[in-house]
Design a protein that fits this description.
The complex is a heterodimer of chains A (about 180) and B (about 100). With about 180 residues, chain A is an all-alpha fold. Chain A has eight helices and no strands. In chain A, about 20% of the residues are buried. Chain B is mainly α. In chain B, helix 1 packs antiparallel against helix 2 and helix 2 packs antiparallel against helix 3. Classes of the chains: A mainly alpha (about 180), B mainly alpha (about 100).
Amino acid sequence: MSLAQILFYLMAFIAIGSAVFVAGTKNLVRSIFMFFITLFALAGLYVLALADFVAITQIVIYVGGILVLILFAFMLSGKETLNAIGEQKSKFININKLPAMLLAGLFLIVLVNMILKVDANNLEWVKKSIVRNNMILPNSSMTEGIGINLMTQYLLPFEAISVLLMIALIGSAHLSRKGKGA
Amino acid sequence: MISLTDFLIVSAVLFCVGLYMIVSKQNAIQVLIGIELMLNAAILNLVAFSKYDRFNNGGQMFALFAIVLAAATTAVALAIILNVYKQYKTIDPGEINKLRD
């Protein structure tokens, strides 16, 4: 087993373990902070998939932006949510959660079954790209390629997403302003 | 050499954890975290397959777009959650049962 594989299993274990903790814990603050760990582990997985730029973007946007937003919303939404959490029973397996667990578990079985059937390593286009030397190697630099492609091939989605971000910014500022008619 | 199937299984597990959170949680913020987990599972798939597309890198590009879209979604959703809290004094999605004031 190579070092990359060991690191992959470690990162996958951390990501899945902390995600399960996020889902299982009753304490909202703790679950938000464990979500940090999940996101960092996922960034590590992106690095192991040879996508370093995406990993950095993940850390900057998710950890720097989205989680701070979620923490703000949690703090602004007041004491009632905290009290409600304290009142809940601390049983680990709750009978009310059974349908949700059943749904998630069965969906997982379906997904894993399908993944094992697809056998992604032997897909036709994957083999073709290995033959054509179209595969990312650990020593190839990706950020250049992303920059060039962003300004040529993917220029239209790039512009569209900039307009959409502007709309979302104005919309959320409008929604959260104080006073009448909001 | 890490195989694609490993990445796909990790992302399937993360997706199902997100699904469980969306269905079972009684707090709008935790539902939002579940949505983020599902989005991250999808992004992991995009990134894993993008290893075999060096010249166009479509997978990484759309992973970046998906991250930006997730940021926009979260900002709007949190603004809506704060407004709902102002109206109802709770953010339990089960108790919010009318759209008008």
